[in-house]
Amino acid sequence: MIVAQEQTDVQHRWLNGISRAREQTDALFDVLRPGALYDRPIPERHRFIFYLGHLEAFDWNLLHENVLGLKSFHPEFDRLFAFGIDPVGGGLPSDQPSDWPSAKAVHDYVAGIRSALDEKLAKVLSGSQQPTQNEFSLDTLLNVAVEHRLMHAETLTYMLHQLATEKKVQQAGMPVPMLPPATARMIEIPAGPATLGLARAAGSFGWDNEYEAHTTFVPSFEVDQHMVTNRQYLDFILAGGYETRALWSDDDWTWKTANDISHPAFWLRKDEDNDNGWAWKAMFGEVPLPPDWPVYVSHAEASAYARWAGKSLPTEQEWHRAAYGAPDGAERYYPWGSRTPNAKLGNFDFAAWDPAPVHAHAAGQSAFGVRGMLGNGWEWTSTVFAPFAGFKAFPFYPGYSADFFDGKHFVMKGGSARTAACMLRPTFRNWFQTHYQYVYAGFRCVQR
Predict the structure, then answer these.
(1) What's the whole-model pTM score?
(2) How many other C-beta atoms can be found within 10 angstroms of the C-beta atom of residue 165?
Protein backbone atom coordinates (compact mmCIF):
# COMPACT_ATOMS: atom_id res chain seq x y z
CA MET A 1 0.00 0.00 0.00
CA ILE A 2 2.88 2.36 0.87
CA VAL A 3 4.60 1.57 -2.45
CA ALA A 4 1.39 2.32 -4.38
CA GLN A 5 1.01 5.66 -2.61
CA GLU A 6 4.62 6.57 -3.36
CA GLN A 7 4.03 5.71 -7.03
CA THR A 8 0.96 7.95 -7.07
CA ASP A 9 2.89 10.78 -5.43
CA VAL A 10 5.65 10.53 -8.05
CA GLN A 11 3.07 10.53 -10.83
CA HIS A 12 1.33 13.62 -9.48
CA ARG A 13 4.62 15.42 -8.84
CA TRP A 14 5.89 15.00 -12.36
CA LEU A 15 2.62 15.56 -14.19
CA ASN A 16 1.96 18.67 -12.11
CA GLY A 17 5.52 19.90 -12.63
CA ILE A 18 5.27 19.48 -16.40
CA SER A 19 1.87 21.16 -16.40
CA ARG A 20 3.13 24.17 -14.41
CA ALA A 21 6.14 24.61 -16.70
CA ARG A 22 3.84 24.54 -19.72
CA GLU A 23 1.62 27.15 -18.10
CA GLN A 24 4.63 29.46 -17.78
CA THR A 25 5.51 29.28 -21.47
CA ASP A 26 1.89 29.25 -22.68
CA ALA A 27 1.28 32.48 -20.78
CA LEU A 28 4.20 34.13 -22.58
CA PHE A 29 2.82 33.32 -26.01
CA ASP A 30 -0.48 34.80 -24.83
CA VAL A 31 1.32 38.15 -24.37
CA LEU A 32 1.82 38.34 -28.15
CA ARG A 33 -0.82 40.24 -30.08
CA PRO A 34 -2.09 38.69 -33.34
CA GLY A 35 0.60 38.74 -36.00
CA ALA A 36 3.55 39.05 -33.62
CA LEU A 37 4.14 35.29 -33.51
CA TYR A 38 6.31 35.62 -36.62
CA ASP A 39 8.34 38.59 -35.31
CA ARG A 40 12.05 38.42 -34.49
CA PRO A 41 12.75 41.23 -31.97
CA ILE A 42 16.38 40.14 -31.46
CA PRO A 43 18.34 39.65 -34.70
CA GLU A 44 20.42 36.78 -33.28
CA ARG A 45 17.38 34.77 -32.23
CA HIS A 46 14.75 32.73 -34.05
CA ARG A 47 11.25 34.06 -34.55
CA PHE A 48 8.68 33.38 -31.81
CA ILE A 49 7.04 30.72 -34.00
CA PHE A 50 10.17 28.58 -33.70
CA TYR A 51 9.97 28.52 -29.90
CA LEU A 52 6.29 27.60 -30.00
CA GLY A 53 7.25 24.40 -31.79
CA HIS A 54 10.66 23.90 -30.20
CA LEU A 55 9.49 23.42 -26.62
CA GLU A 56 7.33 20.45 -27.59
CA ALA A 57 9.75 19.10 -30.18
CA PHE A 58 12.48 18.98 -27.53
CA ASP A 59 10.28 17.00 -25.12
CA TRP A 60 9.18 14.69 -27.90
CA ASN A 61 12.68 14.05 -29.27
CA LEU A 62 13.96 13.44 -25.75
CA LEU A 63 11.26 10.99 -24.67
CA HIS A 64 9.07 9.58 -27.41
CA GLU A 65 10.98 6.63 -28.85
CA ASN A 66 13.94 5.83 -26.62
CA VAL A 67 12.00 6.08 -23.35
CA LEU A 68 8.28 5.82 -24.02
CA GLY A 69 8.22 3.66 -27.14
CA LEU A 70 6.12 6.10 -29.18
CA LYS A 71 6.40 6.58 -32.93
CA SER A 72 6.75 10.02 -34.49
CA PHE A 73 3.65 11.41 -36.21
CA HIS A 74 5.40 14.46 -37.77
CA PRO A 75 9.10 13.78 -38.43
CA GLU A 76 9.50 16.96 -40.48
CA PHE A 77 8.47 19.18 -37.55
CA ASP A 78 10.55 17.04 -35.17
CA ARG A 79 13.61 18.10 -37.20
CA LEU A 80 12.53 21.68 -37.99
CA PHE A 81 12.01 22.60 -34.34
CA ALA A 82 14.81 20.50 -32.86
CA PHE A 83 17.63 23.00 -32.39
CA GLY A 84 17.97 26.66 -31.58
CA ILE A 85 20.91 28.88 -32.44
CA ASP A 86 23.82 30.27 -30.44
CA PRO A 87 23.45 34.06 -30.19
CA VAL A 88 26.33 35.84 -31.89
CA GLY A 89 27.25 32.52 -33.45
CA GLY A 90 27.70 31.71 -37.11
CA GLY A 91 26.00 34.74 -38.61
CA LEU A 92 22.48 36.10 -38.32
CA PRO A 93 19.47 34.00 -39.40
CA SER A 94 17.97 35.12 -42.72
CA ASP A 95 14.68 33.21 -42.84
CA GLN A 96 11.41 34.96 -43.66
CA PRO A 97 7.99 34.52 -41.96
CA SER A 98 6.77 32.69 -45.06
CA ASP A 99 9.45 30.03 -44.52
CA TRP A 100 7.66 28.82 -41.39
CA PRO A 101 4.53 26.65 -41.05
CA SER A 102 1.18 28.21 -40.22
CA ALA A 103 0.36 28.94 -36.59
CA LYS A 104 -2.49 26.42 -36.77
CA ALA A 105 -0.14 23.67 -37.99
CA VAL A 106 2.27 24.34 -35.16
CA HIS A 107 -0.48 24.52 -32.53
CA ASP A 108 -1.84 21.19 -33.82
CA TYR A 109 1.65 19.70 -33.55
CA VAL A 110 1.97 20.98 -29.97
CA ALA A 111 -1.43 19.59 -29.00
CA GLY A 112 -0.66 16.20 -30.55
CA ILE A 113 2.63 15.85 -28.69
CA ARG A 114 1.14 16.86 -25.35
CA SER A 115 -1.71 14.41 -25.70
CA ALA A 116 0.57 11.50 -26.65
CA LEU A 117 3.23 12.24 -24.02
CA ASP A 118 0.78 12.85 -21.19
CA GLU A 119 -1.14 9.66 -21.85
CA LYS A 120 1.98 7.52 -21.96
CA LEU A 121 3.72 9.27 -19.05
CA ALA A 122 0.67 8.76 -16.84
CA LYS A 123 0.88 5.03 -17.46
CA VAL A 124 4.65 4.80 -16.97
CA LEU A 125 4.68 6.94 -13.84
CA SER A 126 1.79 5.00 -12.33
CA GLY A 127 3.71 1.75 -12.85
CA SER A 128 1.12 0.23 -15.17
CA GLN A 129 3.66 0.30 -18.02
CA GLN A 130 7.44 0.16 -17.99
CA PRO A 131 9.65 2.63 -19.87
CA THR A 132 12.10 1.24 -22.40
CA GLN A 133 15.60 0.64 -21.06
CA ASN A 134 17.77 3.73 -20.88
CA GLU A 135 21.12 4.58 -19.30
CA PHE A 136 19.54 7.52 -17.51
CA SER A 137 16.56 7.41 -15.19
CA LEU A 138 13.21 8.78 -16.24
CA ASP A 139 13.54 11.28 -13.37
CA THR A 140 16.70 12.70 -14.95
CA LEU A 141 15.08 13.04 -18.37
CA LEU A 142 11.96 14.68 -16.96
CA ASN A 143 14.11 17.13 -15.01
CA VAL A 144 15.88 17.98 -18.27
CA ALA A 145 12.54 18.50 -20.03
CA VAL A 146 11.11 20.75 -17.30
CA GLU A 147 14.23 22.87 -16.77
CA HIS A 148 14.81 23.22 -20.51
CA ARG A 149 11.30 24.66 -20.83
CA LEU A 150 11.82 26.99 -17.88
CA MET A 151 15.11 28.23 -19.36
CA HIS A 152 13.22 29.10 -22.52
CA ALA A 153 10.58 30.87 -20.45
CA GLU A 154 13.38 33.30 -19.58
CA THR A 155 14.60 33.47 -23.18
CA LEU A 156 11.09 34.22 -24.41
CA THR A 157 10.67 36.92 -21.78
CA TYR A 158 13.78 38.85 -22.74
CA MET A 159 12.74 38.50 -26.39
CA LEU A 160 9.35 39.96 -25.45
CA HIS A 161 11.21 42.77 -23.68
CA GLN A 162 12.68 43.88 -27.01
CA LEU A 163 9.34 43.66 -28.86
CA ALA A 164 7.45 46.89 -29.55
CA THR A 165 4.99 47.67 -26.75
CA GLU A 166 2.01 47.86 -29.11
CA LYS A 167 2.58 44.24 -30.10
CA LYS A 168 2.11 42.99 -26.53
CA VAL A 169 -0.93 42.48 -24.32
CA GLN A 170 -0.43 44.44 -21.10
CA GLN A 171 0.05 42.32 -17.97
CA ALA A 172 -0.16 43.16 -14.29
CA GLY A 173 3.17 43.93 -12.64
CA MET A 174 4.66 43.98 -9.18
CA PRO A 175 4.75 47.42 -7.49
CA VAL A 176 8.26 48.87 -7.37
CA PRO A 177 9.30 49.48 -3.74
CA MET A 178 10.02 53.09 -2.79
CA LEU A 179 13.43 53.15 -1.15
CA PRO A 180 16.13 55.70 -0.38
CA PRO A 181 19.01 55.67 -2.88
CA ALA A 182 21.30 52.65 -2.75
CA THR A 183 24.74 53.25 -1.27
CA ALA A 184 27.86 51.96 -2.97
CA ARG A 185 30.28 50.11 -0.73
CA MET A 186 32.47 47.05 -0.85
CA ILE A 187 32.42 44.06 1.47
CA GLU A 188 35.57 42.28 2.57
CA ILE A 189 35.45 38.54 1.97
CA PRO A 190 38.08 36.60 3.96
CA ALA A 191 40.03 33.78 2.40
CA GLY A 192 38.24 30.45 2.51
CA PRO A 193 36.78 27.51 0.59
CA ALA A 194 34.35 27.48 -2.31
CA THR A 195 32.80 24.14 -3.21
CA LEU A 196 31.73 24.21 -6.84
CA GLY A 197 29.73 21.56 -8.65
CA LEU A 198 27.58 18.59 -7.76
CA ALA A 199 28.79 15.27 -6.41
CA ARG A 200 27.65 12.67 -8.92
CA ALA A 201 27.34 10.07 -6.18
CA ALA A 202 24.80 12.22 -4.33
CA GLY A 203 22.15 11.47 -6.93
CA SER A 204 20.89 15.08 -7.18
CA PHE A 205 19.86 16.38 -10.58
CA GLY A 206 22.15 18.74 -12.39
CA TRP A 207 23.09 19.51 -15.97
CA ASP A 208 26.25 17.88 -17.28
CA ASN A 209 28.42 20.97 -16.70
CA GLU A 210 27.53 21.01 -12.99
CA TYR A 211 29.53 17.85 -12.25
CA GLU A 212 31.91 17.00 -10.55
CA ALA A 213 32.02 18.59 -7.08
CA HIS A 214 35.36 20.07 -6.06
CA THR A 215 36.57 22.51 -3.43
CA THR A 216 38.94 25.37 -4.17
CA PHE A 217 40.68 27.82 -1.85
CA VAL A 218 39.80 31.47 -2.56
CA PRO A 219 42.19 34.21 -1.35
CA SER A 220 40.64 37.24 0.36
CA PHE A 221 39.09 39.98 -1.77
CA GLU A 222 36.54 42.78 -1.66
CA VAL A 223 33.25 42.70 -3.58
CA ASP A 224 30.55 45.25 -4.31
CA GLN A 225 27.72 44.88 -1.83
CA HIS A 226 25.20 45.45 -4.63
CA MET A 227 25.16 44.90 -8.35
CA VAL A 228 26.31 47.90 -10.39
CA THR A 229 23.33 50.22 -10.90
CA ASN A 230 22.12 52.30 -13.82
CA ARG A 231 23.22 55.40 -11.86
CA GLN A 232 26.79 54.10 -11.54
CA TYR A 233 26.90 53.00 -15.17
CA LEU A 234 25.70 56.43 -16.30
CA ASP A 235 28.80 57.88 -14.63
CA PHE A 236 30.88 55.56 -16.81
CA ILE A 237 29.08 56.76 -19.95
CA LEU A 238 29.43 60.44 -19.00
CA ALA A 239 33.14 59.89 -18.35
CA GLY A 240 33.54 58.74 -21.96
CA GLY A 241 33.75 55.04 -21.20
CA TYR A 242 32.48 53.98 -24.62
CA GLU A 243 35.02 56.24 -26.36
CA THR A 244 38.09 55.28 -24.28
CA ARG A 245 40.03 52.70 -26.27
CA ALA A 246 42.18 51.58 -23.31
CA LEU A 247 39.14 50.20 -21.46
CA TRP A 248 38.27 47.66 -24.14
CA SER A 249 39.97 44.51 -25.43
CA ASP A 250 40.80 44.45 -29.14
CA ASP A 251 37.90 42.14 -29.93
CA ASP A 252 35.42 44.09 -27.79
CA TRP A 253 36.46 47.43 -29.31
CA THR A 254 36.02 46.04 -32.82
CA TRP A 255 32.54 44.77 -31.93
CA LYS A 256 31.54 48.03 -30.26
CA THR A 257 32.77 50.16 -33.14
CA ALA A 258 31.39 47.99 -35.94
CA ASN A 259 27.95 47.90 -34.34
CA ASP A 260 27.94 51.51 -33.10
CA ILE A 261 27.37 50.41 -29.51
CA SER A 262 27.21 53.44 -27.22
CA HIS A 263 24.92 52.38 -24.35
CA PRO A 264 23.14 49.34 -22.85
CA ALA A 265 20.49 47.69 -25.02
CA PHE A 266 17.80 48.34 -22.39
CA TRP A 267 18.48 52.11 -22.40
CA LEU A 268 16.82 54.64 -24.72
CA ARG A 269 18.23 58.11 -25.44
CA LYS A 270 15.41 60.63 -25.02
CA ASP A 271 17.23 63.96 -24.82
CA GLU A 272 20.62 64.42 -26.47
CA ASP A 273 21.20 67.69 -24.61
CA ASN A 274 20.51 66.30 -21.15
CA ASP A 275 22.98 63.99 -19.40
CA ASN A 276 20.04 62.44 -17.55
CA GLY A 277 17.84 62.23 -20.63
CA TRP A 278 17.61 58.46 -20.66
CA ALA A 279 14.66 56.06 -20.46
CA TRP A 280 14.59 52.36 -19.67
CA LYS A 281 12.82 49.88 -21.92
CA ALA A 282 10.49 48.20 -19.42
CA MET A 283 8.42 45.20 -20.47
CA PHE A 284 5.23 47.17 -21.12
CA GLY A 285 6.46 50.69 -21.85
CA GLU A 286 9.25 53.18 -21.33
CA VAL A 287 10.05 54.57 -17.88
CA PRO A 288 12.58 57.21 -16.80
CA LEU A 289 15.90 55.47 -16.21
CA PRO A 290 15.56 53.85 -12.74
CA PRO A 291 18.83 54.83 -11.05
CA ASP A 292 18.92 51.97 -8.53
CA TRP A 293 17.97 49.12 -10.84
CA PRO A 294 20.86 46.88 -11.92
CA VAL A 295 22.33 47.77 -15.29
CA TYR A 296 21.95 44.99 -17.90
CA VAL A 297 24.93 44.81 -20.25
CA SER A 298 27.12 42.44 -22.25
CA HIS A 299 30.27 40.92 -20.81
CA ALA A 300 32.30 43.33 -22.95
CA GLU A 301 30.54 46.36 -21.44
CA ALA A 302 30.81 45.00 -17.90
CA SER A 303 34.55 44.38 -18.39
CA ALA A 304 35.11 47.92 -19.69
CA TYR A 305 33.27 49.41 -16.70
CA ALA A 306 35.31 47.31 -14.27
CA ARG A 307 38.58 48.56 -15.83
CA TRP A 308 37.33 52.15 -15.67
CA ALA A 309 36.52 51.68 -11.97
CA GLY A 310 39.96 50.19 -11.28
CA LYS A 311 38.40 46.85 -10.39
CA SER A 312 37.70 43.46 -12.00
CA LEU A 313 34.85 41.07 -12.60
CA PRO A 314 34.83 38.25 -10.04
CA THR A 315 35.89 34.74 -10.90
CA GLU A 316 33.27 32.02 -10.59
CA GLN A 317 35.00 30.89 -7.37
CA GLU A 318 34.99 34.39 -5.89
CA TRP A 319 31.35 34.91 -6.73
CA HIS A 320 30.49 31.56 -5.13
CA ARG A 321 32.49 32.36 -1.99
CA ALA A 322 30.75 35.74 -1.58
CA ALA A 323 27.31 34.20 -2.13
CA TYR A 324 27.46 30.92 -0.20
CA GLY A 325 30.42 31.16 2.16
CA ALA A 326 30.31 32.15 5.82
CA PRO A 327 32.86 33.57 8.27
CA ASP A 328 33.07 30.24 10.12
CA GLY A 329 34.12 28.41 6.95
CA ALA A 330 30.74 26.77 6.41
CA GLU A 331 28.85 27.00 3.12
CA ARG A 332 25.13 27.65 2.69
CA TYR A 333 22.74 26.28 0.07
CA TYR A 334 21.32 29.77 -0.53
CA PRO A 335 23.01 33.06 0.35
CA TRP A 336 20.47 33.63 3.15
CA GLY A 337 20.62 30.06 4.50
CA SER A 338 18.31 27.11 3.92
CA ARG A 339 14.86 28.71 3.64
CA THR A 340 12.91 28.01 0.45
CA PRO A 341 13.15 30.98 -1.94
CA ASN A 342 10.29 33.46 -1.54
CA ALA A 343 9.46 37.01 -2.61
CA LYS A 344 11.00 38.56 0.51
CA LEU A 345 14.39 37.08 -0.27
CA GLY A 346 14.85 38.14 -3.88
CA ASN A 347 13.39 39.03 -7.26
CA PHE A 348 13.16 35.63 -8.97
CA ASP A 349 10.84 32.76 -9.94
CA PHE A 350 8.72 34.83 -12.39
CA ALA A 351 7.67 37.24 -9.64
CA ALA A 352 8.11 40.39 -11.77
CA TRP A 353 8.55 41.51 -15.37
CA ASP A 354 11.25 44.06 -14.58
CA PRO A 355 14.11 44.49 -12.09
CA ALA A 356 13.82 45.83 -8.56
CA PRO A 357 16.24 48.23 -6.84
CA VAL A 358 19.49 46.45 -6.04
CA HIS A 359 18.95 46.97 -2.30
CA ALA A 360 15.30 45.90 -2.22
CA HIS A 361 15.81 42.47 -0.63
CA ALA A 362 18.05 42.89 2.41
CA ALA A 363 16.65 39.69 3.93
CA GLY A 364 18.30 37.72 1.13
CA GLN A 365 21.83 38.89 1.81
CA SER A 366 24.70 36.45 2.22
CA ALA A 367 26.48 35.65 5.48
CA PHE A 368 29.03 38.35 4.60
CA GLY A 369 26.32 40.95 3.92
CA VAL A 370 26.49 40.85 0.10
CA ARG A 371 23.04 41.55 -1.34
CA GLY A 372 21.01 40.48 -4.34
CA MET A 373 23.14 37.53 -5.40
CA LEU A 374 20.13 35.47 -6.45
CA GLY A 375 17.59 37.05 -8.77
CA ASN A 376 17.21 40.54 -10.27
CA GLY A 377 19.78 39.79 -12.97
CA TRP A 378 22.39 37.19 -13.80
CA GLU A 379 25.92 38.26 -12.91
CA TRP A 380 28.87 38.08 -15.27
CA THR A 381 32.09 36.51 -14.05
CA SER A 382 35.56 36.60 -15.58
CA THR A 383 35.60 32.78 -15.78
CA VAL A 384 35.53 31.24 -19.24
CA PHE A 385 32.87 28.53 -19.46
CA ALA A 386 34.74 25.22 -19.34
CA PRO A 387 34.16 21.72 -17.96
CA PHE A 388 34.96 20.73 -14.40
CA ALA A 389 37.23 17.73 -13.90
CA GLY A 390 35.11 14.60 -14.31
CA PHE A 391 32.78 16.19 -16.88
CA LYS A 392 30.71 13.74 -18.93
CA ALA A 393 28.37 15.01 -21.63
CA PHE A 394 24.77 13.79 -21.48
CA PRO A 395 24.59 11.13 -24.21
CA PHE A 396 20.98 12.15 -24.94
CA TYR A 397 22.03 15.84 -25.28
CA PRO A 398 25.76 15.78 -26.07
CA GLY A 399 25.98 19.37 -27.26
CA TYR A 400 24.22 21.06 -24.35
CA SER A 401 27.48 22.21 -22.74
CA ALA A 402 30.30 20.78 -24.86
CA ASP A 403 29.42 22.88 -27.91
CA PHE A 404 30.17 26.00 -25.86
CA PHE A 405 33.53 25.00 -24.38
CA ASP A 406 35.16 27.19 -27.02
CA GLY A 407 36.84 29.89 -24.95
CA LYS A 408 34.31 32.48 -26.11
CA HIS A 409 31.60 32.03 -23.48
CA PHE A 410 31.70 33.30 -19.90
CA VAL A 411 30.03 31.89 -16.80
CA MET A 412 27.10 33.79 -15.31
CA LYS A 413 25.76 33.09 -11.85
CA GLY A 414 22.74 34.05 -9.75
CA GLY A 415 19.54 34.33 -11.76
CA SER A 416 17.07 36.98 -12.88
CA ALA A 417 13.49 37.92 -12.09
CA ARG A 418 12.49 35.32 -14.68
CA THR A 419 14.65 32.45 -13.41
CA ALA A 420 12.70 29.52 -11.98
CA ALA A 421 13.29 28.65 -8.32
CA CYS A 422 14.59 25.17 -9.19
CA MET A 423 17.54 26.77 -11.01
CA LEU A 424 18.59 28.89 -8.04
CA ARG A 425 20.67 25.97 -6.75
CA PRO A 426 24.29 26.94 -6.07
CA THR A 427 25.73 24.64 -8.72
CA PHE A 428 23.69 25.95 -11.66
CA ARG A 429 25.85 27.62 -14.32
CA ASN A 430 24.64 29.90 -17.10
CA TRP A 431 26.84 31.22 -19.91
CA PHE A 432 26.80 33.58 -22.89
CA GLN A 433 29.18 35.07 -25.40
CA THR A 434 30.85 38.34 -24.54
CA HIS A 435 28.93 40.55 -27.01
CA TYR A 436 25.34 39.51 -26.28
CA GLN A 437 23.44 42.48 -24.81
CA TYR A 438 19.88 41.22 -24.46
CA VAL A 439 19.95 38.75 -21.59
CA TYR A 440 19.01 39.90 -18.09
CA ALA A 441 22.64 40.11 -16.98
CA GLY A 442 24.41 42.63 -14.82
CA PHE A 443 27.54 42.43 -12.69
CA ARG A 444 29.37 43.49 -9.57
CA CYS A 445 33.08 44.19 -9.24
CA VAL A 446 35.86 42.92 -7.00
CA GLN A 447 39.20 44.22 -5.77
CA ARG A 448 42.01 41.87 -4.80
Answers:
(1) 0.94
(2) 12
Are 292 and 321 members of one domain?
yes
State the sign of the Cα–Cα–Cα–Cα dihedral 265, 268, 272, 274. Answer: negative
Distance between CA 159 and CA 438 in Å, rounded? 8
Q: How far apart are CA 215 and CA 427, in angstroms?
A: 12
Clarify whether residues 123 and 210 are in a common domain: no
CATH number at residue 135: 1.20.120.450
DSSP string, 424-435: -STT--EEEETT
C-alpha R_g of the chain: 22
Spatial separation of the C-alpha atoms in residues 303 and 311, rounded to whole Å: 9
**Residue 71, domain extent:** 2-167
Instruction: Give the C-alpha separation, 121 to 116, whole Å.
Output: 9
312 and 210 in a common domain: yes
Evaluate the omega torsion of the peptide bond into residue 212 and state whether it is cis, within 30 degrees of 0: yes
- Look at residues 49, 22, 59, 147 and name the one whose alpha carbon lies nearest to residue 430: 147
Residue 52 sits in the same domain as residue 81: yes
Q: Do 222 and 141 lie in a common domain?
A: no
Number of domains composing the chain: 2
Q: How far apart are CA 277 and CA 93, in angstroms?
A: 34
Question: Which tens digits make up the pLDDT trace of 22-78?
Answer: 999 999 999 999 899 999 999 989 999 999 999 999 999 999 987 888 999 999 999
Q: Which residues pair with 96 in a beta bridge?
A: none
The pairing of strands 409-413 and 378-384 is antiparallel
Are residue 153 and residue 282 in the same domain, yes or no?
no
